[in-house]
Target: Outer membrane protein assembly factor BamD
Amino acid sequence: MARSKISASLMAAVLAGMTLAGCGSQGSSQAERRNLDRFTAQEIYKRGEYELENSRNPEDAVFYFSEVERLYPYSEWAKRALIMQAYASHQAKNYEEARGAAQRFLDTYPGDEDAAYAQYLLALSYYDQIDEVGRDQGLTFQALQAMRAVIEEYPDSEYARSAILKFDLAFDHLAAKEMEIGRYYLKRGHYTAAINRFRVVVEDFQTTTQTPEALMRLVEAYLALGLNDEAQTAGAILGYNFQSSPFYLDAYAQLRGRGLSVEATGDSWLNDIYRQMIAGKWL
Model:
């Protein structure tokens, strides 16, 4: 008798699921959406999964997952639906909605095993909006902060390694922005403004791929201003760390063309960098 009751219950759930999935990837009717309160949280959640796998528009899945959260708040299915809502929104490129769902998950279930994934999705929603170098970099800063949270708060999670890689790429992106502006000033003969940008890269973004070029551009800018000591010191730093780089070969040729050697000389901010480098504290 108990087995018959279980079988009947399972059959009812299967039939309800088939009813919900009946519209397939064509989307759901307005009537169906209005009557979702007739279905269980599990049935609505399964429909969201179905739409995510079969619909070309992930927003269809977002709707069903959000309905689980609305109709059955604080249930186990609502918790699952919330993280899936963040994922489906990200798939739909609705990054602000993805961040909102991920943040609600973190606020409501901070100790849950999926909290690390929610934080990663939040960070990814910023990271995937990082545009070409020429655009405003506010989102890059936010991506860095969110990725750092994954790395520091969930260091043993499966998402930490990916967050580290993306953090480094976003960090390099910021340095590339400084380089772009610096090259713009340098090309137009605004040498002091260019130096200020290249200095930011050398001081604040030392571990990025932009550093060798920044040092070479400093050689170029300082030579243009007749500041030979600074140019030579920039060349010395470049040679010490990146001797095989084509940027070093370019800087070396510029210095030798002026009859100058590649050595740290004078007393400028670059000398402090050089001393730190020799002491093993730089790069």
In short: Confidence is low (pLDDT under 50) at residues 1-19, 21-27. The CA atoms of residues 208 and 258 lie 29 Å apart. Residues 189-283 form one domain.
